[in-house]
Fold this protein.
Amino acid sequence: MMQRFNFMNNTYRRFCIAALFALSLPAMSRAQLQFTGEAAFELSLGGTNSNFIFNEIPNEFRFAHLAINQFNLFVFAPISEEWSLNARVQFDIWGGGRLNPPRITLAAALWQPKESPISLSIGRFVSPFGLYAKRQLQSDNLFASAPLAYGYFVNMSDRRGLWPAAGQSGIYGTTDDVGLSTVYFGGYTTGASLNWILIPDALNVEIAVTNAALSSQADYTNLANIAAIGRVGFQPAIFWQQGISLCYGSFMQADPVNNLVRGANPFEQYRQLLIGTDAIFAYSFFELSGELIYSQWTAPRFTAATGFISALGDANKLVEYSVSNLSGYVDLKFEPPFLTGTYLAVRYERVLFLPYRDARTNTDNLGWDNSVTRLSAALGVKFSKAVQAKLAFSDQAFDGQAFNARDNFTLRSIFVVGF
Amino acid sequence: MRRIVAALILLLFISDAVAQTASISGTVTLPSVQSARGTARGNLYRNRLSPAASGTTEVAQTASAYDDVIVSAHPISFKAKFAPLSNARISQKNATFIPHVLPVTQGTTVEIVNDDPFYHNVFTLGQGERFNVGRRPTGDVQVKKVTSTGETKLFCDIHTQMNAIIYSLDTPYFTRAKSGGSYDLKGLPEGTYELRVYHPNFPIVNGRVELKAGQALQQNFALGESAQ
């Protein structure tokens, strides 16, 4: 996220806050501006191999420490019968483990006529892709960490492209950061979104045109970086909700590190394709949910020794690589009927990196990142409508590596207060 | 002829009984700016299959903020007899509990019905009755006896914006305020009462009154301030 803050400098932040204030003015003059919020405090520790890009705990904070996990301010401004403004201003320790400056993660104008099956969002909004984007607040997330697709950084940089050694080359949140991204970064996207409820409580379609594909970290303003996101949600039975999502578009961004090659190789041409499915099965005191995402990137390749890799015989033309992975998780939640307000949950998740072919050397079955498996368990307690706590343990291992609770584990307790 | 005489005598007794009771009426005022019930995040992070779920703000759960105001009179100078209510019902409709506040007498059995075409859960937190009924399909009726007095706070685990209150009273003398804030408590026997005005967002306001037979007392209250 520090990369994002470099991009989102003070001037940009001030502009955003001023824009939010300006957008709020009509609402303030006509209706009651509503502020709510959510604060999440964290006491956590991690194993000796902890690393933010691996298990979301920076190594220097692997010992028991207390932090403000998130502080959110939500703004809801009804502008008219049909229009409203929604915004989220967020402080957090994402990335480096220290409290970041505030940023506006969400600021969207929502058009929603009463009784209409169609609604429209313009601005920065929750991405329609998948299930987790709607569960990313600590009060909605059963566990303390994000699923691997959202929290595990893959060897794909949105400034350098494919860099199989990158996972060992930089530390996230420092100047050594090499710009790695996750399969699905952040959960928010910028653009315009249409939600059409074709059959109430049975079938809806969401379509969004955005300024970057899901793994992009930057808040692009370059309209050449365009992506489309779609999701079909349906409810085949009362106990079963299903979603199918698709995303295709540009994901790379301009940066001094790629200035020299971008002229002959426009970075907008490199694309990410995601196909996902998510489901919720629920019955009585049990809920089974999860999602599976296939992601494919086309990107240039970078190495620390030679920089960007050019085609043989054409030094100006970068070789295009295609790599892919599968990521998914399954959650099982149980609410003990004899302990109201509590839940127990377990999660199995995995990221599987598929082999790729080196187009330059015609070599097949190459690996580009380490596949990983994570097991998690959580206990949550709701003390009142707005106060809850959870304790989550997880451990993870690369393929071929034994689970060792002292190396990669995380133990996180989160206390959440809504106001 | 005997029947007519008997009916006239009965009518005389009834009119005499009515004349012996007193009433309290007045107006409850709420602060002009109420605290919002956390609408912003609910709109953005919940299931989008339902139009009501994606657009309804929680403030719109009740037609008027006064619908949540319950005025009750608790006898001090005598012990009130009361019976459990019949037909006490809370519906889960359009991802909302209806009504938001249900006043009942202690011992009443409340039916909680899922009137939506999707799952709902009901669980309680805090004081009052404690239960969690799990996920329930359309038409499912849960029956819960309220043996305690005071608030029992209901929530739905699936739709986090949903909440309601069963407000259990140890008196038969209570009423819900009308949409403009006026209330009318009738049929109160002569005696000393503690008047309580309840709204889930404000501290209870109370006052002590003495009623004579046939008296019609006017008593206004302002929630969020001290009692008048």
Notes: DSSP finds five helices and 25 strands in chain A. The radius of gyration of chain A is 22 Å. The first helix of chain A runs from residue 2 to 7.
